[in-house]
Amino acid sequence: MGGGASRPTFPAYVAARSRYSRSELGTITKGFEDCAGKSSLSMEEFQSKFPDAGAAYSRLLFLALRNGNRISRPMSDEEFLQGYTMICKGTAEEQASFCFDLFDINHSGKISHAEFHKGLDALCDAAFALSLPLFFVPGSSDPPTKEEHKETVKKVAKRAMGGLPELKFEHFIQWISSFRQIKEFVLYSLDRLVNKNKEMSPILMALRVQPPLMLKDDKSLITPDQAILLRSWLPEPYCKCHWFSVFSTKSQGYSLGTLYRNHETKLEHLMKDPSILVIKDEGGHIFGGFFPQAWYKNAGERFYGSEESFVFSLAPEKAVYRCTGEDSHIMYTTPELLAVGGKLNYFGFTLDEEMVNGISHPCLTFGCPQLAHSEQFKIVSVQLWGLIDIPSTRALFGIDSDEEIDVDLLQTKEEEGTSIWEREESWVLDELKGVGYSKNLAPPPEFSDEEGETEEKKKSKRLIMPL
């Protein structure tokens, strides 16, 4: 392997097995077989198990686990256990040795500055996708954007070299001892392969950027991890904002007219134009887009929108697709249709007037595949989020502190929400005016006793709390 006689090497398979209990071995074996479906795993199969990590980092992990063996041959379960043991059950020196292999892809026993920066950048990109800026000091400033953090990683890599032309193991082990989060993230990466429910260590949790506050959220669509990932894709300054529910089919019915109206009349504390649209179809696909420009009910049968817009998939795959520059067909809206990307009669995806049916196609505008489960899909749920910056959030809820918003405080606050049935206009009049609520939303129940009325009032309140 190189790097000097003092550098630990992979344990033999029998020695690796001896470090685990029978139940631990069973968990690892089952986890590997669940991933591979057999007793070996190719690099392509291995990379597919890390959708958030990116191809560069997952390739480095695979090469390190192969311990210098040919990458054209699939990795066996025995090889995986040997490498996994180095980082999971190893001493500090063994863990450092495994991490050294992530950067020393040629197993020469030394790492050039270019190799070190490239490897560290790939590792940190994978961590950032999970909202883990590994070289960010919490509380020192606002969480960095991806571009800002990449600049920090570049500086860290340069300082680690200390002016040396190459980094040997004796220098590397000194460096990584000061950055335990690197070893912790590598361990977490491999642990998730055999245990999907593996939680982050306290060291990583302390670094993790918290999800945006999901104000007035009805918990119907996205998870905290999905919200964190989606927030990391947003450009400045939107990536530092919290989210405020502007429209949700779960609480406001299936009506495109209501979505347009709610976006137009949202709270003054919210940013005027930007929004995040999230859709779930009957096939379980969750997708949508970010749009810095406002939605217009009557846009004059033309495309409009900002090139900062992007579309995304959150389930079953996690991916972001940004504007390719092929065309400027971002948003297309009429009272009867909301469409994104593509071209007339072949949009990237659409929602109909009653938000019952949609259509999805591959789209050159964003270079994306079909995002929905099928070309013609049934809509299960739709959410539209507005964005609110931290100062405006403080103002909205009367928080005077200059520090980050107190999540525990907001969890106890309530905001009186006005039911659509309590507005001055009846839903019948709204239907006649063409801005009504879909028949998919049932009229409110009538209560004859005080207890039922109290319960209904509880339902009309929106708890303000993070996902």
Number of strands: 17
Report the major sheet: 11 strands, mixed
Mean pLDDT: 81
Q: What is the general shape?
A: elongated
* Total number of helices: 18
What is the terminal separation in angstroms?
46 Å
Q: Helices and strands: which structural class?
A: alpha+beta
Strand proportion, as a percent range, falls in 15-25%
Q: Please estimate the helix content.
A: 25-40%
Task: Please give the domain count.
Answer: 2
User: Over the alpha carbons, how many angstroms does the gyration radius reach?
Assistant: 26 Å
Unreliable residue runs: 1-5, 400-404, 411-467
Family: Belongs to the OXR1 family.
Keywords: Calcium, Mitochondrion
Protein name: Oxidation resistance protein 1
GO molecular function: calcium ion binding
SSE layout and pairing:
Layout: H1 13-17, H2 22-36, E1 40-41, H3 43-48, H4 55-66, E2 75-76, H5 77-88, H6 92-103, E3 110-112, H7 113-128, H8 146-161, E4 166-168, H9 169-176, H10 180-194, H11 202-207, E5 214-215, H12 224-233, E6 242-248, H13 249-252, H14 256-264, E7 275-281, E8 286-291, E9 310-315, E10 319-322, E11 331-334, E12 337-343, E13 346-352, E14 357-360, E15 376-388, H15 390-396, H16 407-412, E16 414-416, H17 427-433, H18 450-460, E17 461-463
Parallel strand pairs: 5-6
Antiparallel strand pairs: 1-2, 3-4, 6-15, 7-8, 7-15, 8-9, 9-10, 11-12, 12-13, 13-14, 14-15, 16-17
Helix pairs in contact: 4-6, 5-6, 6-9, 7-8
